[in-house]
TrEMBL record:
Record keywords, A-Z: Signal
Top-level taxon of origin: Bacteria
Domain Amidohydrolase-related: from-to ranges: 81-429
Any Pfam family hit: Amidohydro_1
Keyword Signal: yes
Native source organism of the sequence: Hyphococcus flavus
GO molecular function list: hydrolase activity, acting on carbon-nitrogen (but not peptide) bonds
The keyword Methyltransferase appears for this protein: no
Identification of the protein by name: Amidohydrolase family protein
Length: 435
């Protein structure tokens, strides 16, 4: 949180009308920032005494020097460690599945999902995540939310969205799995498609509805009635149609896939990323490494579902307890990381309460990842996955002025990222928590 020492330095550096009581003024447009310490995520070095200049929401200059040399008003971040704005590459902002029966998808008007999304977007941004990749939302509410944030109507992170997940009849995400057949016909929030012609049309429909990427269910899932996470869904041929049609329109494909067979199908079809990979095997890890496929491994949602919530998955053919399942998932995370597969930070937000995203960093370290690589997964690696490496992921001239400020050194204690004091998005102060 913002301590009074920070407020006092702000009092010196900025005229009184720009200040809010006990906080840094929200929605303040910055032109200069003095950073006592910031993390260069590429080199892994903590750099000191930087004067960052901002023009049009982007970093226009980074100079070394004391703050006494700065002319005019500036934001003084002495006493803080500054990092690039974080990226979560697997969210569901319009979903509150963690509420269980208290969030009854089938009884809610479509507009409710947008309202929920707006609330969750604010929580996510204020937790330090200035960019998200939102991978499947009902009724294209993610498209509407992305555009509302871009227009300044709603406070939230920069969004890259997939719209509805493409899934087979009876596949993961099919609401009809909970319904009588006559209800399924008129109520389905995702894109049900079978065979080459239907999946091609589903991609084209998504393109028309202005998505940024395509999400496809390549296996069953934990959260869908009647599906088995380890079982493959689409054939390689169907997945290739999805990938090829997406590429025609400049879109990447993210594949939900737990079991090894479904992961192999998706990787061989040319998807950009595998989401979850909770049952991956050694052969499939090697295949992902060979094909340069990203892994987005959501340890936080797995821990929340299996351990914290102790969800009953007796119908999923797991053959082990929840604790054993989570231990297996963390072991496979370690194997994937040590094999050199590119791991992008993604948490499956919505399975757990939004705003807790940064808790995953410690879980990644517990599973064998270094602190620096965990941070890189949520900055430069995730930026590459989104094909946004020219815009986000580093504190570098030309990139968006997206910063977070924390007390302490995240390379020594990653948990400091769970308590972000200040968030800046495109040079605008978004949140500055009071004591």
């Amino acid at each position: 949180m913002i301590l009074r020492g920070f407020f006092f330095s702000f009092l010196i550096s900025l005229p009184a009308p720009l200040l809010a009581k006990d906080t840094v003024a929200p929605h303040l447009h910055l032109e200069k920032v003095f950073v006592e310490t910031y993390l260069d995520v590429l080199s892994g070095e903590l750099k000191t005494n930087a004067i960052i200049e901002i023009t049009g929401g982007r970093i226009s200059a980074i100079k070394n020097g004391p703050k006494d040399a700065i002319e005019g008003d500036f934001l003084d971040l002495s006493g803080y460690t500054v990092l690039p704005g974080l990226i979560d590459a697997h969210t569901h902002l319009c979903d509150n599945s963690h509420l269980g029966a208290d969030f009854d998808h089938w009884s809610l008007p479509a507009a409710t999902f947008g309202i929920v999304g707006a609330l969750n977007a604010k929580k996510t941004l204020r937790a330090g995540f200035t960019t998200v990749r939102d991978v499947s939302s009902p009724f294209y509410c993610d498209v509407a939310l992305r555009d509302s944030i871009s227009r300044g109507w709603v406070e939230g992170p920069r969004m890259f969205v997939s719209g509805q997940m493409v899934t087979m009849t009876g596949g993961h995400g099919s609401w009809g799995n909970w319904m009588a057949p006559e209800h399924e016909i008129q109520t389905n929030a995702h894109a049900i498609a079978d065979g080459a012609d239907e999946v091609r049309k589903a991609v084209r429909t998504h393109v028309r509805n202005k998505v940024d990427l395509i999400k496809v269910a390549a296996t069953g899932g934990y959260g869908t009635h009647g599906t088995i996470p380890g079982a493959a869904s689409y054939s390689v041929e169907e997945l290739r149609v999805i990938v090829n049609e997406s590429r025609k329109h400049g879109l990447t494909v993210a594949a939900h896939a737990h079991g090894a067979d479904g992961i192999k199908n998706a990787v061989r079809a040319g998807v950009t990323s595998i989401e979850h990979a909770s049952m991956i095997d050694d052969e499939t890890i090697r295949l992902m490494r060979k094909n340069d496929t990203y892994a987005v491994l959501d340890l936080l949602s797995a821990r929340f579902d299996l351990i914290e919530r102790n969800q009953n998955y007796d119908d999923k053919n797991l053959g082990r307890t929840n604790n054993e399942e989570y231990d297996a998932i963390t072991m496979l995370f370690k194997k994937t990381y040590e094999a050199g597969v590119k791991i992008a930070f993604g948490t499956d937000a919505g399975v757990y309460p939004h705003g807790r995203n940064a808790e995953q960093f410690q879980l990644m370290i517990d599973a064998g990842m270094s602190s620096l690589d965990a941070i890189r997964s949520a900055t430069i690696i995730a930026a590459d996955l989104l094909n946004q490496q020219e815009n986000i992921g580093e504190i570098k001239v030309g990139k968006y002025a997206d910063f977070i400020a924390v007390r302490g050194n995240p390379l020594e204690d990653i948990r400091v990222l769970e308590d972000v004091d200040l968030v800046i998005k495109e040079g605008v102060v978004i949140s500055a928590q009071s004591e």
